[in-house]
Design goal:
Elements (H helix, E strand, L loop, with lengths): L7 E9 L2 E10 L5 H37 L2 H9 L4 E13 L2 H8 L1 H21 L2 E6 L3 E6 L8 H15 L4 E16 L4 E6 L1 H16 L3 E4 H7 L7 E7 L7 E7 L7 H11 L3 H14 L4 H13 L9 E2 L4
Parallel strand pairs: 6-8, 9-11
Antiparallel strand pairs: 1-2, 3-5, 3-6, 4-5, 6-7, 8-10, 9-10
Helix pairs in contact: 1-2, 3-4, 4-5, 8-9, 9-10
Length: about 325
């Protein structure tokens, strides 16, 4: 039955996603000849294609948006545009951990804890991103960030350290940050059903170990020598904490304390460290004991006093402190 008394009613199915989802309708008082039927059928197909393309674009935009919420947008764009399975890169790795998180979460409760973490991580994400890095993974009460992986960058050591200093200045909660620079293997790793872009290697493990040392020395920021030598001139202050062989590693590394509000950064501490690693444990113990009179909460001095007592009669010490904890 036609509209407004028109005699003929023609409908042309519109295939969208391989299903008829609409009709292109022609209502006329004239009989449509074969050539016109072919023409209108082609018009129906053209409109179907346009609608299909619009739906595809919308779906891609939605996937792009949601994918960007699941991973850092920089990583998303890299994955979508790169065909590389893996590559070796020299990068800077940052590990951050929120101190006393268990006690804090018990006090806040589940809902408030999530809001608290989201607020901190949102600020950290902006700082890391503004300094050329990206947060690769969250670890519950912390995260791992990478600088220099997605784009060639000769200043990733500086970028990572500056980002850490900005985070410490911005985040009003106790945190510890460990940073090191070195080679990693970067690429998409996982199973056929789920892949994740990440970086792996000793450099990642070392950064994690260094972050753990922040608790021992009550420091907010510790960095390894591989990072320190590239950004030394940009640091407001620092102190050499000594030479350490981290758990599971053979080669010792130097660790530098950058931000430690209660630590001693005077020449006395340097003298104490130099004496200790020269094997003059009695004199080093005396120096560190004197430091505690002026810096009673300097964890490093307290720790080295215990080490002076431990190594005073040691016969096989090789000049490196081996850490047994992660």
């Amino acid at each position: 039955m036609g509209f407004k008394g028109l005699k003929y009613y023609y409908n042309f199915p519109m295939l969208i996603g391989e299903q008829v989802q609409a009709y292109f309708i022609i209502n006329t008082d004239l009989v449509i000849v074969k050539n016109d039927l072919i023409f209108f059928n082609d018009i129906s197909g053209l409109i179907s294609s346009i609608i299909q393309n619009i739906n595809v674009v919308r779906e891609k935009d939605l996937i792009h948006k949601e994918f960007g919420r699941s991973v850092d947008p920089l990583v998303r764009d890299h994955i979508l545009s790169s065909n590389k399975n893996g590559e070796r890169l020299t990068v800077t790795i940052m590990f951050l951990d929120i101190r006393n998180f268990t006690t804090l979460s018990e006090k806040l409760g589940p809902g408030e804890t999530v809001l608290f973490l989201n607020n901190i991580f949102e600020n950290c994400h902006k700082i890391v991103k503004n300094n050329g890095g990206f947060i690769n993974k969250f670890t519950g009460d912390g995260f791992m960030a990478v600088f220099g992986a997605l784009k060639a960058n000769d200043f990733h050591e500086k970028d990572g350290t500056i980002a850490a200093l900005e985070i410490i200045k911005t985040i009003n909660t106790p945190i510890g940050i460990g940073i090191t620079s070195g080679e990693v293997l970067a690429g998409e790793i996982g199973s056929d059903e789920r892949m994740e872009y990440t970086v792996i290697g000793d450099t990642v493990n070392i950064a994690s170990r260094i972050e753990g040392m922040c608790k021992t020395f009550n420091s907010k920021l510790l960095i390894s020598d591989s990072t320190f030598k590239m950004i030394k001139e940009h640091l407001p202050c620092y102190r050499n904490l000594g030479k350490f062989r981290l758990k599971g590693k053979n080669e010792p590394i130097l660790i530098y304390d950058i931000i430690n509000p209660q630590g001693c950064f005077t020449q006395d501490f340097i003298t104490g460290i130099t004496s200790f690693y020269s094997g003059n444990f009695n004199f080093a113990k005396e120096i560190f004991t004197n430091i505690l009179e002026f810096f009673p909460n300097d964890y490093a001095s307290k720790w080295y006093i215990s080490k002076c007592q431990e190594y005073e009669y040691a016969k096989d010490w090789d000049g490196v402190i081996t850490l047994i904890n992660k």
